[in-house]
Amino acid sequence: MSITSNRVRAAAYSFEPIRQFYFYSRYADRRGDPDICDFTFGNPHEMPLPGLVEAIRHYAVPHNKDWFAYRASEPEPQTFMAERLSQELSLSFEPADIALTNGAMAAIAVAFRLLLDPGEEAIFSLPAWFCYEPMLLAADAVPRTVRLRGDRFDLDLSAIEAAISPRTRLVIINTPHNPTGRIYSRDQLTDLADLLNRASERIGRRIFLLSDEPYRRIRFDNHDFTSPAAVYPWTVVAYSYGKVLLAPGQRLGYLALSPLMPSSDKQALQSSLFAAQMALGWCFPNAVMQYALPDLEGLSIDMHALSAKRAWMTEALERAGYEVLRPEGTFYLFCKCPGGDGGRFWDALAGRDVFVMPGSVMGVPDHFRISLTASEPMIERSLPVFAEVAQAICDARQPAA
Ligand SMILES: Cc1ncc(COP(=O)(O)O)c(C=O)c1O
């Protein structure tokens, strides 16, 4: 008999591939070594944005005796955020629609606690960020997965429809999508909304949508963005500043309720947000990050430099024979492993000090993900290695003459 709870054991089982990778793999042995090219996680490889440092420094100095008192979702940042989000998404948010959280992960945990009872089902599409499943299991909910469709990893609406059961309470959509970089169009999201309306009627219970949008502002070529909150009223949005500021360790984000939600449902959620955040163990941002929010809102990583890295790596990898899915958003490149054997390919790169995120931790073992948060010298050093490893795999597959 185990002394840990069933729910934590289920979450631990689900997290195991990423835990093994992070703590016990060849990558773990080399993590932090300046001689490697580390394209694994979306971590910074250069100094932080000066504006971020200035804001934290400024607001870390107490202005009064209450400066570091308990801070839940405070009215000033809520009001500020409601106004800015209304402009950004062309919707009319009110302050009570915004729950400030310590990042998107906390926003997602709050959404699960708010909407899902034990045994209820949440559907998401694979490949996916590796935390949805363990977080659902830790909330005593049941993850149901479907596959994204085709070489471009489109939403498969028929698969989502087929996965809906009388116990379905939530569908999770991540746009821009990690790891594929896809952004779902307004038309696709409208079709999804129609489907969820029909399915909710059929099962006699409202299905909610969680729109996980932490990469919302990281888009290439002025790509359009529609939030599901604008097309499906029963949407809750999770957001994080960790991506746009490239400072995932400084936890700041929010959960926002769609202003289109019928007022009785919206009021029920609004009035439960505080309880959900408290009961989960203080899912609020720390005081300094709340004060700094207005200063941080306008800051962003250098999108011009990120676009240049995307073009540089995509073109070089394609020239070397890789199949690369050119991302519409996020800071990732999603590629097929040459030769199709993900493990062998990953080992060959690791043997040359180049580390990528294996697709096996995201449900696609024949793919890998590159984080474009890498520095330019890392990219420069790695490109000949990518080319030589692909060539070696190709040579090994040629039949002997
Ligand atoms: C799709 C997705 N959702 C949520 C998160 C969590 O973001 P944060 O760590 O900033 O809370 C991440 C982080 O990698 C992510 O990729």
UniProtKB/TrEMBL annotation:
EC number(s) reported in the record: 2.6.1.-
Cofactor(s) required for function per UniProt: pyridoxal 5'-phosphate
Enzyme class: transferase
Limits of the Aminotransferase class I/classII large domain: 38-380
Key words, A-Z: Aminotransferase, Transferase
Domain of life: Bacteria
GO molecular function terms noted in the UniProt entry: pyridoxal phosphate binding; transaminase activity
Pfam families: Aminotran_1_2
Family affiliation: Belongs to the class-I pyridoxal-phosphate-dependent aminotransferase family.
PANTHER family on file: ASPARTATE AMINOTRANSFERASE YHDR-RELATED
Name of the protein described by the UniProt record: Aminotransferase
